[in-house]
Amino acid sequence: MQTKLTLRLEDELIEKAKILARQRGKSVSKLVSEYFKFITSKELKSEEDLPPVVKSLYGSLANSKSKESDYKKYLEGKYL
Hints:
Blueprint: H1 11-24, H2 28-40, H3 52-57, H4 68-79
């Protein structure tokens, strides 16, 4: 079963993800899915074990300045 997931990301990161996905012939959803599968697998021993594409995304939201209230305003503007 697949379920829709909404993520809050910086615009610049989204654009980079779209470019990367296009270069690899995949969707952004597929890239995210592969990343989640990888980081939740028992095979992950350290950050050094990450494939290059996953390593490039690893920790990308650590310094994010996004706030939940900003996201709620965005969704209200988009859907209401």
